[in-house]
Amino acid sequence: MKILDRIDGPQDLKALSYEEVRQLAQECRHLIIETITQRGGHLASNLGVVELTLALHRVFESPVDRLVWDTSNQCYTHKLVTGRRKEFSTIRAPGGLSGFAEPKESIHDVLAAGHAGTGLSYALGVSLALQQEEAEPYVAAIVGDGALTSGPSYEALNNIIHLKPKRLVVVFNDNGWSISENVGWLTHWRNRIILHPFYKHLVETGQWLLEKLPHGGQAWELARKLKSSVEGLFLPNLIWEEMGFRYLGPIDGHNQQDLEEALKRSREISRDGTPVVLHALTHKGRGYSLAEENPSKFHQPSTPSAKVAEVERYTYSQVFARTLIELMRADRKIVAITAAMLEGTALKEVKRHFPDRVLDVGIAEEHAVIMAAGMAKAGLRPVVAIYSTFLQRSYDQLIHDVCLQSLPVTICIDRAGLVGDDGKTHHGIFDIAYTRSIPNMTVAAPQDENELQHLLYTAIYSGRPFAIRYPRGLGLGVKLDANLQTLPVGKGEFCKEGKDVTLLAYGSMVSVAWEVSERLSRVGVRCGVAHARFAKPLDLELIRRVVLGSSRVLTLEEGMKHGGFGSAVLEACQEEALPTSHIRIHGIADQFVEHSPAVLQRAQLKIDAEGVLEKVFELYPDLIRQDGVPEESRREKSQEKETVRW
Q: Which domains does the chain have, with CATH numbers?
């Protein structure tokens, strides 16, 4: 019987020998590899944190003690040993386990957080709330996978030093990576540690020997002065000490005994309110050679698909990168910025061509947008590529530093819309509402990958703040124009006349509108299609033509219904004194969308062709009669016959 099969909760870990724990670690790794290579998910980061997770649960007493994971994409082993072993095969599947921590699943999960940099602030808040609890619970914040490149982490560290809560432990799971390789001073710190592994042993041995001697404590304090001057040559752990933390480490994050001893020491130190940080060096992808050799690629391998494309198609991200390379060749003022997403945004290929003009700032979206504003102010043409869900963190910077200054920064919003298995923490369904609400901002979405390249060209040379949203995954397979062209800002396209009903679609929903129109035409419904292209400024001429030319209008968007594109259309109609009683809005209702394949999510939310078709008849029950002919069509045909007879 496998040891893992006997683990139904953290309490079952306590009595295991170190040899049994090492075996359990291998079993956890094997199950994670077996499951995630089939289902998709965060692989490399979870393989690196197995021993640390087991050590945390053997030293702390969850759920009385709270473990806060930052980010919680590294909690798969945690799920395995907290009663979810049997359900692990369902991870990221519809109705199955979440790919992140999820309090609805287990009392051992504190928060459903999927964005990096929130853990320390969460942990501090929880710790402060528990200071007077009789059980004297501990709070451990496990910070890793690049979270310490995020600005909120430093704000929290500063406040921890100020407040000094009792029983708060910071565990720095240092694997050297976020999604891409980490940037900044932490990277240099880690490199120096690796270059001088003997130094830690030397310091620890010296301290141990001195403390055994009479007046050893005083001797150690004197030695620390020498130690401080020497260690500056090797590693800057004085940063932690100068901040006010008691620093333990670096610890081998795969040595079970060392980890547990260090965690026990951390508990003792933090008991009286002394801020403590335990630094564990881990290896992202450990135990799976493919992930060890390429931790970036295996950070989150995609869910395998049995479908093979009949023709080669580019993803929207690839078309964005391809277009940007072409533009950067012709214009040295264009620079690109991302926040730890070189691979996901396809900027890695752009960086290969222009290594000095593609900047990865780490998990620091706020900084990325402000820096872009500074570049634009000084005459460059910055392009900021960030996932929609992470751009949410830069809302203030979009307002205050870009749009208030009316600076020509191009914001490329990747992963806009539904993203599938990553679930509610990662859907890009709010950006239409939060970008269109900002003065001076232009907000656009292409109907396909060909239009994306023209919009990017238009945005960069527009001389204004300009946001372009585009979805995750493959484009429609349309032919890409050889020559880029400027599109008129604020102008959409009236594609097809339809007196019975007109679908006014935005971005990815245009192709859906065309399919619905074709299917409605087969049952005699005259369905028009209009491609808005811009959510701000709206094409008022197009809206007027649609609203006055059709007896029913349905707006379509892959975003939140409240405050989105459809709301903008109704606002415009009110300002222009246009009738609105026949207009309906169709988008995502007021909810967070749980994880499942994106195809299933679109079907459930009725924003695929089948769902929109159903919505048309649901909203306009008078549109079609039993004989399959719309009321207006029957009336007009009858009038035509009367005219002919006369």
A: 4-196+235-293 (3.40.50.970), 197-234 (no CATH), 316-469 (3.40.50.970), 493-634 (3.40.50.920)
Q: Letter for the amino acid at 514?
A: W
What is the total residue count of the chain? 646
Q: What was the pLDDT predicted at 357?
A: 98
User: Is 284 a catalytic site residue?
Assistant: yes
* CB distance 593 to 605 below 8 Å: yes
What does the DSSP assignment read for 185-217?
A: HHHHHHHHHHH-HHHHHHHHHHHHHHHHSTTHH
Q: In the prediction, which pLDDT does 179 show? A: 44
Q: What is the per-residue pLDDT for 642?
A: 38
CB half-sphere exposure, 356, CA atoms < 13 A: 3
| Per-residue confidence (pLDDT) for residue 419, from 0 to 100 | 94
CA atoms of 210 and 231, how far apart (whole Å): 18
Q: Residue 342 phi/psi, 5° resolution?
A: -60, -45
From residue 189, give the alpha-carbon distance in Å to each of 145, 249, 436, 500. Answer: 15, 12, 42, 66
Q: Strands 276-281 and 246-252, how do they pair?
A: parallel
- Rounded Cα gap, residues 358 and 281, in angstroms: 29
Q: 412 in helix, strand or coil?
A: strand
Q: SS3 for 230?
A: helix
Under a CB-based contact definition with an 8 Å cutoff, are residues 4 and 85 in contact?
A: yes
What one-character-per-residue DSSP string does 304-361 give?
P-S---SS---BHHHHHHHHHHHHHHH-TTEEEEESS-TTTTTHHHHHHH-TTTEEE-
Radius of gyration, alpha carbons of the chain: 28
**CB-based contact 258:251 (threshold 8 Å):** yes
Which amino acid, residue 243? Answer: M
Q: Residue 381, SS3?
A: strand
Q: Which of 51, 365, 451, 557 is catalytic?
A: 365
Q: Is 246 a catalytic residue?
A: no
Alpha carbon 646 to its chain centroid, in Å, reads: 67
At residue 302's C-alpha, the angle toward residues 298 and 308, to 5°, is 130
CA distances from 61 to 78, 164, 416, 638 (A): 13, 22, 40, 79
Indicate which residue of 84, 85, 167, 393 is catalytic: 393
DSSP structure class, residue 10: G
* In the block, residue with structure tokens 């709010």: 430
- Secondary structure class of 451 (helix, strand, coil): helix
| Catalytic hit among 284, 415, 533, 552 | 284
Q: What is the mean pLDDT of each run of 10 residues along the chain (646 residues)?
A: 94 96 96 91 90 97 96 92 95 91 94 88 96 96 84 92 97 70 52 49 60 62 50 54 87 94 96 94 76 50 44 88 98 96 95 97 94 97 97 97 98 96 92 97 98 98 98 96 98 96 98 97 95 98 97 97 97 97 96 92 96 94 61 48 37
Instruction: Identify whether the C-beta of residue 500 lies closer than 8 Å to the C-beta of residue 632.
Output: yes
Sequence-distant (6+) residues with CB within 8 A of 624 are 523, 524, 525, 617, 630
Q: Is 365 a catalytic residue?
A: yes
